[in-house]
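Dear colleagues,

I hope this message finds you well. In preparation for our joint manuscript, I am sending the Putative peptide modification system cyclase (Marilutibacter penaei) sequence together with its predicted structure, so that both groups work from identical material. I would be grateful if you could confirm receipt.
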Amino acid sequence: MEGVRDDAGHHEGQGPNDGHAQENPRSPQLRTLLLLDICDSTQLVEVLGDTAAAQLFREHDRLVLRLQQQWRGRLIDRSDGLLLLFERPIDGLGFALDYLLGLRDIGRLRELDLKARAGLHVGEVLTWRNSDEAVRLGAKPLEVEGLAKPMAARLMSIARPGQILLSAVAEPLVHRAVRDIGERGQSLVWKSHGRWRFKGVTERQEIFEVGEPGLVPLKRPIESPKARRDVPSWRRPAALAAEAALVAAIAVGGWFATRPPPAIAFNERDWVVVGDMRNLTGDARLDDSLEQAFRISLEQSRFVNVLSDLKVRDSLGRMELDPGTVVDRNVGAEIALREGVRAVVLPTVSEVGGKLRVSVEVVDPATGSTVHALQAQGQGSDSALASIDRVVASLRTDLGEALAAVDGTAAPLPQVTTSNIDALRAYALGQTAFAEDRADEAIRLYRQAIELDPDFALAHQALARVHTALSDRQRALVHLQRALELKAHLPPRDRLYLDAWHAELLLPGEALSRWKVLASMYPDSLPGQANVAGHQFKRNEYAASLAALEDINLPQQPMQGVVADMMGRALLAQGRLDEAKLRFDAAEAVTPGISLRRRAWWLAAQDKPGEARALIEAMPSRGVVTEDLVRYIDLATLAADEGQWDTAGAAYARAREALDGSDSPLARQFELEVAALDALRNGDGGAAPSRLEALARRQLEAFGQPDNANRVDDAFMALVAAYLAQRGGDATVGRQVLAALHDDLPALEGTQVEDMAAVVESGQARLSGDAGRAIALLQPQVRGAGLVQAHVAMWEALNAAGRHDEALERARWLQAQQPRAYAEANASQVLQLMNVVDTRLAHLQAARSLQAGGDAEGARAEVDRLLDTWPRSRWPDYLLRSTESILPASKANTTM
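The corresponding structure tokens are as follows:
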């Protein structure tokens, strides 16, 4: 194989100091050794022919070279497989994992099943370089010797095709560092193959296997004359043969009487996949109803995590199976191995001796063997729910959950669901319909469940959720209130979920704290952590939002595309552009199209507005008018970012034309954004106070409607209208809006409305001449996670107070916030255009502060920086006049 280099970039046979090679061994060094060998490599030439085989080996060499550079490996020898040295064990594992994948891809192109075996060990080795003369005569450039080398060779020799074996020394070092190779490290599958004896090695060695779900063989290594499993003498073949006859007679009965329960290494917060309920009774009512009941019961555990139906369907799709495929032992095991799930749980309901029996098998997906078998039975179908309760409680304790924890969360199913099997079946079918975006059918099924059992709290909660998703707040509130009345009939986890939704719809200021309770009690709960992250993002608490998302950034979680997109947006807002792009790429790989808008913002933050605009314009229609029109917010902002005011106005005009005079929340938002554009384009006269007063009044009227699902956004936008008036020097609209919201603001504390209200209150103080109070009102936001516009308002207040050095600091901060200006949430991004333009105008703010401090040269430089982005021809007249007031006329003309 040609072209393979060592880790310093030298070809084999060439040292870094040619002519000065050292033959004396260095002192022993602790290194990671990786030995790899392609299985049946000698047959490749016979199968492919000389030319094709040579091409394959050249491609193999390129793979090895690329992985050496990626994982910092040094190729030592390739005479009998590949021998590489690494500084860190995790780099050796990363190389091995990628090598197996790369080899598989090379083979697929030729319809070959190419596999390799690998052995990884950590130990002391001696290294020395051979002289140039010795290398010319055929010696290797670098020699490596030591007991670690044959140890790695023994591991490789007993590995099966596709198997990576680790020594007991290497395993803990690698295991501790798996996070260093990213998300794939968290999903690796590990298995101990027990103790082995190697020829020439006195001590017994424990061997471990590691690999990626779906690829790792997880089979016992191959014994050889040089490597055998370490078993007691009585278990060796000769002894076993002598003992077998004696033991057989008593073993058959004794084993069944005394066998210990099999075990599985299940830890707190590990995951299980629940297979489809096998219904052997012939009663079709039990198919979906008991499976749903079983899932509800098991999901109350804070010890066991249950893979969601949505994730199971996603896995089936990636397995190229129909989403309706029955999840049995084999399918469940494959899903478990793919998703890093610890166990498969297979429930069955049957009739035995006239009684209804509920039984459960727990299967180890690595071996396919049953490790737990539990059952409970009762008289008739009415006993089914109680039997499920008993089986699930036993299952939880067998998996290692404390009995006290089981008793504390195991509410009886008839009490927390319904005793009506038909109602439970309708609810289960409704859950499936809702998960598959068949909202109308879900509503019909939930209503049927309530008709059969009017006190079915879970069905009322489900109807509240689906009506909220359809923006039908009035109907959602009816069922929310009924669910609250029946709260005692909900499982513990769902009570927390209901409390959070109650706050979301009626007490928005408490929503974040309620979601935090759910997330703290059930840390792997997707609704809990995702809603915590969403609220924290809206409050510009980006680091906290990322932390919550990390808790659900797991391969077992559904909606990984949504989570990755949210993480990318938070990273973008922080200005961590490279990390944000990686998250957007990950989101697109899982859910194509989900991150297109955020990709455009990323491009804009990289000063690539043309590419950003092309990406937005090429976005496919989603068939929902309101969702399709959101793109015009971005198109207008991208145009304004370049000072193309008419193009921005045209984008808004297209959106308003499509809305055709509607008074929808989106229509009101576009009117407000057009007013902001006019103010930025034309100065103080761009948006008359009367126009802004009318816009604020419409937002307040919408806010006052009891069935309004957008009350927080409407209050925020009313405050934005007041803020726009303040930027033009008018305090009337601000006074009216603050008075109208006065009684509601306490309930809105903890939302973005609180932040915007502080900005408006500060503006009122500044316009009344109290710059000190204006500054004090904004200090909490400027020091913490405030709005971009809070910093703009702070510059105005500091400038009014004559504190020009501090004002300059605010202007400098704004200049660096273009990524955040695009990404900030601020009530459906009504402030996006204003934010982005203000990051450009911050150069003029800095110029004013510098000029006021006597630094005319610095002020002129700031104006020049804005000219680099906006040519003079794009400057509105009021900005030209403003610049002339900043600099002396002669110098201003020179600069412009």
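For the figure legend, we might mention the following. The CA atoms of residues 23 and 130 lie 5 Å apart. The longest strand covers residues 116-129.

With kind regards,
E.M.
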